[in-house]
Amino acid sequence: MSFRHLLLVAGAVLATASSSAWAAAKPAYGTWGVDTADMDKSVKPGDDFFAYVEGTWLKNHPIAEDKRGAGYNYDLPDSTEIEVRNLVEQAGESPSDPMMRQVGDFYRAYMDEAAIEAHGLAPLQPYLKRIAAVKDRHQLVALMSDPSYAAPIGIGITADEKDPTRYTVASGQARLGLPTRDYYLLKGDKYDSIRKAYHAYIAQMFDLAGIPGGEAKADAILALETRLSRDQWTPEKRRDPQATYNPMNRAQLMKLAPQFDWTATLKHMGLGNMPTVVVGEPSTVAAAGKRIADVPLSTWKDWMTFRFLSDHAQFLPKAFDQANFAFYGKTLQGIPAQPVRWKRAVRLLDASLGEAVGQLYIARHWTPDTERQVDELVDDMRAGYHDLISHASWMDEPTRKEALQKLAAFDPRVGHPVKYIDYSSMKVSRTDPLANDVASDRFEWNLELSRLGKPVDRSLWDMTPQTVNAYYDPVMNQVTFPAAQLQPPFFDANADPAVNYGETGATIGHEMGHGFDDEGRQFDAKGRLRDWWTKQSAARYKVHADMLVKQFDSYEPLPGVHIKGELTLGENLADLGGLEAAYTAYRRYVARHGEPPVIDGYTGDQRFFIAYAASWQGKTREEALRQQLLGNPHSPEKYRVDGIVRNFDPWYKAFDVKPGDKLYLPPDERVHVW
Question: Where do the DSSP E strands lie in 167-214?
Fold first, then answer.
């Protein structure tokens, strides 16, 4: 199954001038690129480096009522959303342009709450009638193959991991109503209360839709999802790309799970000519098939009804929307207030007409000079990785040769796609936001279908230009940095070079590092899932990785809830490898330009590490943090700083960290990716 490594939170700043250039123009933050007022200098760096750099901010900065957390990665999307809102509202005033009319109509339909209330349940009825019309399990499975309806397994189109030049069909476990299987299975009052609230929410959805028997239906649906969750693979197990690559022909599929009637289902989806399907989690698919057979048809229909109501609640009258937020926002993430309507409209546009909006955003907020500067730093980071790989003592020559070939083949994309998606065939209603969401689902599926039988299009993006994030795709061997990520505080050409490398360099290094983390390293220079490591190098690598797993397993951000070291291993390796490469690149810069001056009492190396820590500025509500710890492959911000720098020798030297300091690790316990 194809996967992407997202950055989620990171920092980036770039300058290509000399070490004295920081004074030529004022950066957006502080006098050299970091707001030192956020620091708590009463904290010893070797005891808690994150608190040393962000302690005052952590104490004094509140989390906004409508957010799961606070920090740079919450602030920057705010300003970007305001910019997009302005563009969209202007688009709504230009009906002569078809693309702008689509964007404006989609936005206005969602924003017209009075019309949504006036229409009541009428827009919903055609979709519920399709579920009600199901008379047998063949019809049930056929409806589950529609992109707007829920199913216990997913079927999609992706690049083949063994041959990334062609598309294939993939299938595997689908999401349930709760975030991860742990929410169904863990014992304790906390999880009992969440399951009780979920049960009440299920019943409420039926009550709001005027469907009787909500309590009994909730009993059966929660029991069904609990059974399904027991058979699902853990997030940790799903990280193994070899285990999740299981191509099967029709006969094998029918033997695995005949209940899904694969020939008819694939034909119904437009996939009838595909000879094989890559199954991600075979045991889960087989078990889901058994549930199709042994769970009453009426329960499955109720489940699909609930999921349609829940998944589309924000397009329905206000009572549905409020109930959905009360559970998924307040209960599961601890967020007190729902974001204002226009913010949610902008996010929906990003998901449905994202590249149309992206064209408007790029035209207003992007300059080729930014792209040039980032390209320069990518080249510098590539050189840094080349140094590290060339001198890695644990890597033998055959493996080193292939690693350098993969590094040379990295394909960096910056700012925006070279071509944009054409949405002209998508019908957008000015009055029916629910129909627009369903139309978006259908458009996306038809777009994927149109690519079958053609070579894989390497120009496609998985994020829009207005997204504050970045990602690495191991199958394409591509690193991608959208335009919105490359602005203050994450991009500032006027910042001190030490900051540039500590933030932007570490960000780029993180994404490039995914090519060599425990998952990404299993793909070669052409993106093929292929074991190119000698047994000796792989064994030595695993020793380092296992040490990092053990370290992060020991961290307990919430009482009784530890970081899952195996789940977060890829991101932790990318963080550490990215920091190592960024520092190597920075020292190459210093060798060219001379040792930088001391600024505000901080050496260049100290500013580098302070900038790295500042880039992870953030804090999260308890319930949102719980959800992250149970199923997200990214460690919390504090541990992406303290858990990483304590493994890096130059940090010890920069801040004179010694035995007795809380973060101190003996040299033989420090993990070095390179």
Answer: 167-173
> Is the pLDDT confidence value at 10 over 80?
no
The gap between the terminal CA atoms of the chain, to the nearest Å, is: 28
Question: Candidates 1.10.1380.10, 2.40.30.70, 1.10.10.10, 1.20.1290.10; correct CATH number of 118-338?
Answer: 1.10.1380.10
- Closest among 181, 183, 190, 289 to 235, alpha carbons compared: 181
Residue 5 binned pLDDT confidence (cut-offs 50, 70, 90): low
Q: How many whole angstroms separate alpha carbon 1 and alpha carbon 171?
A: 8
Give yes or no for residue 7 having a pLDDT over 70.
no
CATH code of 9-82+366-417+463-669, in short, is: 3.40.390.10
Q: Find out whether 424 and 99 touch, Cβ atoms under 8 Å.
A: yes
> 197, exposed or middle or buried, with CB in 10 Å at 0-12, 13-18, 19+?
middle
CA 231 to centroid of chain Cα atoms: 24
Two structure tokens written together for 536: 């000796």
Share of the chain above pLDDT 70, in %: 96
The domain spans of the chain are 9-82+366-417+463-669, 118-338
What distance in Å separates the CA atoms of residue 115 and residue 318, rounded to the nearest whole number? 11
Q: Which amino acid is at 110?
A: Y
Q: Is pLDDT of 39 > 80?
A: yes
Q: Which residues contact 334 (CB under 8 A, 6 or more apart)?
A: 68, 621, 622, 623, 624
**pTM exceeding 0.90:** yes
State both tokens at 487: 């602005």
Residue-wise burial string across 425-440, b where 16 or more C-beta atoms lie within 10 A, e elsewhere: ebebebebbbbbbbbb
Report the alpha-carbon distance of residue 249 to residue 501 in Å, rounded: 49
Task: With a cut of 90, say whether residue 94 has pLDDT above it.
Answer: no
